[in-house]
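Why do we care about 3D structure at all? Because function follows from shape, and shape follows, mostly, from sequence. That is the central idea of this module. The next example makes it concrete: a single protein chain, its amino acid sequence, and then its structure expressed as tokens.
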Amino acid sequence: MSDIRTLAVAFVVTLAAITGGAAVTGFVTADGAAPAPEIQNEHYVDGDAVANDTPGRATVEMESTARSQTVLVDPGIDSSGGVAASPLALLGLGSPGVADRDIRPLANALIENGHEIGVYVPGATQPRRAAGPGSGGAETRLGERLADADAFVTFRTDYDEAELSAIEEFVDSGGRVIVATEPDAAFDQPGAVGLDSTLEVTTEPGYVYNMEENDLNYQRVYAEPTGGSGAALTEGVDRAVLPSATPVGTATGGGDVLRPIEGSELSTTRASTEAPLLVRSDGVVMVGDSDFLSPENAARADNDALIGNLADFLVAGGQATPTAGPTPTAPSGNQTAPSGNQTAPSGSQEPPENQTTG
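And the structure:
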């Protein structure tokens, strides 16, 4: 009899526990879910970690009043699979959704100020002018396009030796170059490393991040001017946002223009870093990010001012126009003069200026 009494008591206790638990559960979930626990990770709740996600519109302006210049852009695509009907669509101009490199803020600023944009796509059928006088032997297609350009924008493309020689000659003659790279493009192509050597710039593996203060997420780092020799590139820039940046430098050291803010670290070492993210070496600028040029990022922080300064930089140079050689002397001896039925080339005998879009 005592066993039956014991079992009955145990049953009542168990039933009460289950019923009570259900009641509590019903109370907690009556509105759909229990209250979310507090997040303990500081980089998620820090007020500095998330910036304004509606920053307004970018205003990219140029100060330069230079004569019309031609800026050649290599978006770094492989044309073997076909290209857009209009190469300018590769830069986001005229055909939304087609762009490989949407650099409309930079391109539009240049066009609105009377400059011309050309797009280089290897192997694509595009009208171009023939190489000018004194061009020497066989040229690469890139070399032909650079001969008619004053500035060059590239995204650290894989170039062969002949193309690298053409780029070196272009810089030596006074052409301006902007190289934009990214962490995943830092070391994957030997030609890209060759470009660094040709332009005397450097890159480091990994990306820069900041868990303490950033723009929207930890990889979108803030960079600030160093106050050095690149002051013209940072006029009006207190802070720039680089969405995915890798450290860059110059082969000779120095030339730092933008550095990450305090609290930034390098992914490969997890250590703090002050390595520059934008550098200048004479007529060459290298920046460790390319996405900052896109319309959505041009409106972040002072990126629009930075892009306008880069546009000014591109048109501040221009290749030197080759000078005419010495007038040839008349041949000696009994040689007859050429017959008069040969026509002289029309127009000026001076080499043409670089005014084509190509």
